[in-house]
Amino acid sequence: MAEAKKGDMVKVHYTGTLDDGSVFDTSDDSAPIEFVVGGGALIPAFEDALVGMNTGESKTVRINAEDAYGPFYPDMVIDLDKGALPGDLEPQVDMMLEMEDEDGFSRLVRVVELSDTSVTIDANHPLAGKDLTFKVELVEIL
Fold first, then answer.
1. Is residue 62 a contact partner of residue 49, using CB atoms and an 8 Å limit?
2. Share of the chain above pLDDT 70, in %
3. Where are the alpha helices (DSSP H) in the chain?
4. Complete DSSP assignment for 61-115
5. Per DSSP, what are the bridge partners of residue 113?
6. Tens of pLDDT along 88-101?
Protein backbone atom coordinates (compact mmCIF):
# COMPACT_ATOMS: atom_id res chain seq x y z
CA MET A 1 0.00 0.00 0.00
CA ALA A 2 1.35 3.44 -0.92
CA GLU A 3 2.20 5.91 1.81
CA ALA A 4 1.51 9.61 1.42
CA LYS A 5 4.59 11.70 0.70
CA LYS A 6 5.36 15.31 -0.08
CA GLY A 7 4.13 16.21 -3.55
CA ASP A 8 1.17 13.80 -3.45
CA MET A 9 -2.34 15.11 -4.12
CA VAL A 10 -4.53 13.76 -1.32
CA LYS A 11 -8.11 13.78 -0.06
CA VAL A 12 -8.48 14.16 3.70
CA HIS A 13 -11.31 14.33 6.21
CA TYR A 14 -10.50 16.25 9.37
CA THR A 15 -11.93 17.70 12.55
CA GLY A 16 -10.10 20.50 14.33
CA THR A 17 -10.66 21.10 18.05
CA LEU A 18 -9.40 23.49 20.70
CA ASP A 19 -8.16 22.50 24.16
CA ASP A 20 -11.68 22.92 25.59
CA GLY A 21 -12.94 20.30 23.11
CA SER A 22 -14.87 22.75 20.94
CA VAL A 23 -14.79 22.10 17.20
CA PHE A 24 -13.52 25.06 15.17
CA ASP A 25 -13.65 23.36 11.76
CA THR A 26 -14.54 20.01 10.24
CA SER A 27 -15.07 18.38 6.86
CA ASP A 28 -17.38 15.72 8.28
CA ASP A 29 -20.52 17.22 6.73
CA SER A 30 -18.92 17.84 3.34
CA ALA A 31 -16.53 16.37 0.82
CA PRO A 32 -12.96 15.70 1.94
CA ILE A 33 -10.48 18.48 1.25
CA GLU A 34 -7.98 18.02 -1.59
CA PHE A 35 -4.47 19.46 -1.55
CA VAL A 36 -0.84 18.70 -2.34
CA VAL A 37 1.11 17.51 0.69
CA GLY A 38 3.85 20.06 1.28
CA GLY A 39 2.28 22.50 -1.17
CA GLY A 40 1.69 25.14 1.49
CA ALA A 41 -2.08 25.42 1.09
CA LEU A 42 -2.62 24.45 4.73
CA ILE A 43 -0.74 24.74 8.02
CA PRO A 44 2.65 23.08 7.29
CA ALA A 45 2.48 20.92 10.45
CA PHE A 46 -0.96 19.65 9.33
CA GLU A 47 0.42 18.70 5.92
CA ASP A 48 3.55 17.12 7.45
CA ALA A 49 1.37 14.90 9.68
CA LEU A 50 0.08 13.10 6.58
CA VAL A 51 3.52 11.98 5.40
CA GLY A 52 3.77 8.20 5.88
CA MET A 53 0.03 7.65 6.30
CA ASN A 54 -1.80 5.00 4.27
CA THR A 55 -5.21 5.34 2.64
CA GLY A 56 -7.94 4.74 5.23
CA GLU A 57 -5.61 5.48 8.13
CA SER A 58 -6.60 7.99 10.83
CA LYS A 59 -4.56 9.77 13.46
CA THR A 60 -4.71 12.66 15.86
CA VAL A 61 -2.12 15.42 15.69
CA ARG A 62 -1.60 18.33 18.06
CA ILE A 63 -0.15 21.54 16.65
CA ASN A 64 1.24 24.19 18.99
CA ALA A 65 0.06 27.77 18.42
CA GLU A 66 3.51 28.81 17.19
CA ASP A 67 3.30 26.19 14.41
CA ALA A 68 -0.33 26.97 13.58
CA TYR A 69 -1.48 30.61 13.40
CA GLY A 70 1.23 32.03 15.63
CA PRO A 71 1.04 33.87 18.93
CA PHE A 72 -1.65 36.34 19.90
CA TYR A 73 -0.32 39.90 19.66
CA PRO A 74 -2.09 42.32 22.03
CA ASP A 75 -0.81 45.29 19.99
CA MET A 76 -2.98 44.06 17.09
CA VAL A 77 -6.10 44.90 19.13
CA ILE A 78 -6.81 48.53 18.28
CA ASP A 79 -9.37 51.14 19.31
CA LEU A 80 -10.68 53.28 16.44
CA ASP A 81 -12.92 56.30 16.44
CA LYS A 82 -16.26 55.31 14.90
CA GLY A 83 -15.83 58.24 12.54
CA ALA A 84 -12.97 56.34 10.84
CA LEU A 85 -15.50 53.82 9.51
CA PRO A 86 -17.68 54.36 6.43
CA GLY A 87 -20.81 56.28 7.41
CA ASP A 88 -23.23 53.58 6.23
CA LEU A 89 -21.50 50.80 8.19
CA GLU A 90 -23.30 49.54 11.30
CA PRO A 91 -20.56 47.61 13.12
CA GLN A 92 -21.53 44.63 15.27
CA VAL A 93 -19.43 42.54 17.66
CA ASP A 94 -17.84 39.58 15.78
CA MET A 95 -18.37 41.29 12.42
CA MET A 96 -15.44 40.80 10.05
CA LEU A 97 -14.20 43.92 8.26
CA GLU A 98 -11.65 44.35 5.51
CA MET A 99 -9.24 47.17 6.25
CA GLU A 100 -6.09 48.47 4.63
CA ASP A 101 -2.94 48.68 6.77
CA GLU A 102 -0.37 51.47 6.60
CA ASP A 103 1.55 49.53 3.92
CA GLY A 104 -1.51 49.33 1.68
CA PHE A 105 -2.18 45.62 2.31
CA SER A 106 -5.74 44.42 2.83
CA ARG A 107 -6.34 42.69 6.16
CA LEU A 108 -9.38 41.06 7.75
CA VAL A 109 -10.14 42.29 11.25
CA ARG A 110 -12.84 41.33 13.73
CA VAL A 111 -14.92 43.79 15.73
CA VAL A 112 -14.50 42.79 19.39
CA GLU A 113 -16.05 45.72 21.27
CA LEU A 114 -18.25 48.74 20.61
CA SER A 115 -19.00 51.95 22.47
CA ASP A 116 -20.92 55.07 21.45
CA THR A 117 -17.75 56.64 20.05
CA SER A 118 -15.27 53.85 19.35
CA VAL A 119 -14.82 50.43 17.79
CA THR A 120 -12.25 47.93 19.04
CA ILE A 121 -10.89 45.66 16.32
CA ASP A 122 -8.64 42.61 16.50
CA ALA A 123 -6.31 42.00 13.55
CA ASN A 124 -5.01 38.67 14.93
CA HIS A 125 -6.11 35.49 13.19
CA PRO A 126 -9.10 34.12 15.17
CA LEU A 127 -7.02 31.04 16.10
CA ALA A 128 -3.83 32.95 16.98
CA GLY A 129 -2.38 31.89 20.32
CA LYS A 130 -4.34 28.62 20.36
CA ASP A 131 -3.00 25.09 20.26
CA LEU A 132 -4.94 23.00 17.74
CA THR A 133 -5.76 19.29 17.66
CA PHE A 134 -6.76 17.64 14.41
CA LYS A 135 -8.24 14.20 13.86
CA VAL A 136 -7.28 13.41 10.26
CA GLU A 137 -8.25 10.54 7.98
CA LEU A 138 -6.38 10.01 4.73
CA VAL A 139 -9.25 9.17 2.36
CA GLU A 140 -7.29 8.84 -0.87
CA ILE A 141 -3.93 9.46 -2.51
CA LEU A 142 -4.70 10.69 -6.03
1. no
2. 100
3. 44-50
4. EEE-GGGTT----GGGEEEEEGGGS-TT----TT-EEEEE-TTS-EEEEEEEEE-
5. 120
6. 889 999 999 998 87
Neighbouring residues of 42: CB distance < 8 A, sequence distance ≥ 6: 33, 35
Residue ranges per domain, the chain? 9-69+128-141, 74-122
Q: What is the pTM of this model?
A: 0.84
Cα(102)–Cα(110) distance, rounded to whole angstroms?
Answer: 18
pLDDT at 84 over 80: yes
Smallest Cα–Cα separation from 10: which of 2, 20, 18? 2
Strands 77-81 and 23-26: unpaired
Return d(Cα 142, Cα 128) in angstroms, integer. 32
CATH for the stretch 74-122: 2.40.10.330
- Provide the β-strand partners of residue 34: 11
- Residue 78 has a CB neighbour count (10 Å cut-off) of 14
The CATH-assigned architecture of domain 9-69+128-141 is Roll (3.10)
**Amino acid of residue 90:** E
Predicted pLDDT at 61: 98
